[in-house]
Structures are given as C-alpha cells and as structure tokens.
C-alpha cells in the first residue's frame, strides 16, 4: 500500500514542485496540499495521510511547530516531517520537541526526502543534515552523571534560562518570557557557559540531552 502524503507549505510553487516529483516515486501518493496550519488540520482529518510534510514558516500565527503539536493531539498516528530552509539546531530541536519525526532541508536532493518519508513511515526518526546526529550520539555516550552534578551549580534563574535556550528559544524570546532584558539574558548565559564548562551551542545541546531536558519520545 502506498504511503499517503500531505504537503503543507504557504508557497503554491513549492507545493507543486514537491508534488510533481513525489508523484513519480513508486510507493508514495500525494493525497493533498495545504497552505497554512488551519487548512492542514482540516485536510489531515479529511484525507487521513500517513506522512505530513510540514513547512516551518507559515502565516496566520500558526507556524509549522504549532501546527505539528496541534495536529498530533488530534491525530497521534500521523507522522510529521519538517521540510524547511532553516539549517539550525535550534529549529531542529524545537521541531522534535513538537513531535515531528523528521527534519529535512529544502535544499536536500529529492532522494533524501524520499528516504526520509520511507524511514519515518517505518517508525524511525530521520534527521538531515546528518551531522546533527552527533549531538544525540554524544548524549547517549556521554557522562550523564557529571552533567547532572554541574547543572546543580546553577542558580534557579540560570536553570530557567538554560532550559529555554536548550529548547531553541532566542535571547529575545527568553527575555520576553521571563520579563527581563536581553542584556540580562546574555549575562546569565555567559555565567552558565562558564559554570558548565561549555564553549558553544553544540556543547550546550549535548549537555541538555545528558541532563534529560531534551528527549525523544
């Protein structure tokens, strides 16, 4: 039986291009298209796709992450692959936290997208670019106990900020959520990195995995 795919993107040209290519691939059937989050939910309930290819940036206050979370609450059996131009770990981790099973760049060759669709349909998590898997591997093979001990040296405010940053929030978003200035967030981040002996975002993500703040269901 073919894998039924719903394409969600606010650009008609993008949807048409993806559909035209996928329609030539055996074992995959595009059952519909949606241009925003609201129509995605409606079409998914109507068409019952196996896989939803979800763009991150969409209008009307319902981006791909919000729509993914909302969709999976109604249809937990559906699998979502984020298809985006954002080659940034903060988006990748937020996508996985929202419940997505895959993350593929729009610049990837179509063969990679087809592979992602097939693997996700089989129950696997597919991440592209592949080097993001190193973050997960570092977590799985790292010293989790040491990570927990160092985390406890942070103040409560630092723990709050660390958790938000690890989940992909920007300095501005953290400042707004905690009602503090961006400068204060930056100062706290500096202290956090020093206390935890971290030097960059990748190491912060690895530490967050070890601490259990970022998990795959």
From TrEMBL:
Q: Which residues carry this modification: 4-aspartylphosphate?
A: 55
Ranges of residues in domain Response regulatory: 4-121
Residue ranges of every copy of the HTH luxR-type domain listed in the record: 147-212
Chain segments annotated as transmembrane: none
The reply to whether Cell membrane figures as a keyword in the UniProt entry is no
CDD domains noted in UniProt: LuxR_C_like, REC_NarL-like
- Keywords, sorted A to Z: DNA-binding, Phosphoprotein, Transcription, Transcription regulation
PANTHER family, per the entry: TRANSCRIPTIONAL REGULATORY PROTEIN YDFI, TWO-COMPONENT RESPONSE REGULATOR
Q: What is this protein called?
A: Response regulator transcription factor
């Amino acid at each position: 039986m073919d894998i039924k795919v719903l394409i969600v993107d606010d650009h008609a040209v993008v949807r048409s291009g993806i559909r035209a290519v996928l329609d030539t691939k055996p074992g995959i059937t595009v059952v519909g298209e949606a241009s925003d989050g609201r129509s995605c939910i409606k079409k998914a309930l109507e068409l019952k796709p196996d896989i939803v290819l979800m763009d991150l940036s969409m209008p009307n206050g319902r981006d791909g992450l919000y729509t993914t979370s909302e969709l999976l609450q109604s249809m937990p059996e559906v699998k979502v692959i984020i298809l985006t131009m954002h080659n940034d770990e903060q988006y990748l981790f937020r996508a996985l936290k929202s419940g997505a099973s895959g993350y593929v760049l729009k610049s990837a060759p179509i063969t990679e997208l087809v592979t992602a669709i097939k693997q996700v349909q089989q129950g696997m998590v597919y991440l592209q670019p592949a080097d993001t898997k190193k973050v997960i591997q570092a977590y799985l093979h790292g010293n989790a106990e040491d990570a927990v001990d160092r985390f406890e040296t942070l103040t409560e405010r630092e723990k709050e900020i660390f958790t938000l940053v690890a989940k992909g929030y920007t300095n501005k978003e953290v400042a707004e959520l905690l009602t503090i200035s961006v400068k204060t967030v930056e100062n706290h981040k500096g202290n956090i990195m020093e206390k935890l002996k971290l030097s960059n975002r990748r190491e912060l993500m690895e530490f967050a995995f070890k601490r259990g703040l970022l998990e795959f269901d």
